[in-house]
Specification:
The protein is an alpha/beta fold. It has 11 helices and 14 strands. The chain has helices spanning 43-50, 72-77, 94-104, 109-122, 138-150, 168-182, 194-200, 218-222, 239-243, 267-276, 291-313, and strands spanning 3-14, 17-28, 32-36, 58-63, 66-67, 79-82, 156-160, 186-190, 203-208, 211-217, 227-232, 250-255, 258-263, 283-286.
């Protein structure tokens, strides 16, 4: 697939503080990339640099083959952006606002009406196109914000917290819209809502303390590392007995004779081993790894490593 965004060795310093530390990644056509990180990780600084609102200290950014620093107008023309707080003019109708945005994008007069109609159709705004924006629900206002981002048919769309403050039905509608847009655009979704990334994105990227700590597709991430299984055994089997067997990397007691085990062996190998030990296996289930747990493991382990390094240096 062709690369729509190429970021190489991107860094941003605020005085002595390094907010973004030498990150590199690419966005391809058809990608919906979930961009995750705890507060203060460097997400906002990265988004501001990608959209041309903040100059990097070092590094290169290319959008649809155009260098953002050397040719900013052409690069930004290939970009649609929905900030966390959409830049809406409350006294305009939806149609008036989108026509205004179309002129800002320097669309030709013959193109304006068709571009607005297409954006209204794709974002499900047909029933409210003549209403004042101030009278719309938060969900519809988010849709208007997305409509202005796709109005000029940019190959790249950046969405910053697009479902914050929405009710569950509105969230599902916006998620479906993102999936639809992902079929014809490359999308970066910046969010704190981990289930949203798991529901919408095909790739995920985690930034922590200014550094990229993970970058892979969702399926790889959910299947990373060792497997966890829940098992139930005879009442006379305890955790200490299980922990003495090398096939288990960790053993936790859930309740009574139920255990959560971790192993580098697959389910078939584990089942065979447990049966051979005659432990009275009555239940065996693979535990689905959650994106939330993976996120916590990656970010907390990084912080613990950095804290240890600081302690050792002291």
């Amino acid at each position: 697939m062709s690369s729509l965004i190429s970021v190489n060795n991107l860094s941003r310093h605020y005085g002595d503080f390094c907010a973004v530390n030498n990150i590199s990644f690419e966005l391809s056509a058809g990608d919906i990339l979930g961009f995750l990180g705890p507060n203060g990780a460097g997400k906002s600084s990265t988004m501001q640099m990608l959209t041309g609102n903040l100059a990097p200290t070092y590094g290169e950014i290319s959008i649809d083959g155009k260098d953002l620093l050397e040719n900013p107008k052409a690069a930004k023309a290939s970009l649609g952006y929905l900030p966390e707080n959409p830049p809406l003019y409350q006294e305009m109708t939806v149609t008036e606002y989108l026509q205004f945005c179309a002129r800002l994008h320097q669309l030709d007069k013959p193109q304006i009406n068709s571009a607005c109609s297409t954006a209204i159709e794709r974002c499900g705004l047909n029933d409210v196109e003549q209403r004042l924006i101030r009278n719309l629900s938060k969900g519809f206002q988010q849709r208007v914000g997305i409509a202005q981002a796709i109005l000029h048919s940019p190959p790249v769309i950046i969405l910053d917290e697009p479902t914050v403050g929405l009710d569950p039905i509105q969230i599902l509608e916006i998620r479906q819209l993102m999936k639809t847009l992902g079929e014809s655009h490359g999308i970066i979704l910046c969010t704190h809502i981990l289930p949203e990334v798991q529901a919408v994105c095909n790739r995920v990227q985690i930034i922590n303390q200014g550094k990229l700590v993970y970058n892979a597709n969702i399926d790889e991430m959910l299947n990373r590392g060792t497997e966890k299984f829940e098992i139930a055994l005879s009442p006379d089997i305890n955790r200490e007995q299980l922990a003495g067997h090398d096939i288990f990397t960790t053993v936790e007691t859930i309740e009574n004779n139920h255990f959560l085990i971790e192993s580098k062996s697959d389910a078939a190998q584990l089942t065979q081993y447990i049966v051979e030990q005659k432990w009275g296996l009555t239940h065996f289930a693979t535990q689905q790894t959650s994106l939330e747990q993976i996120f916590i493991d990656l970010t907390l382990s990084e912080e613990k490593t950095d804290n240890k390094l600081e302690t050792d240096a002291a």
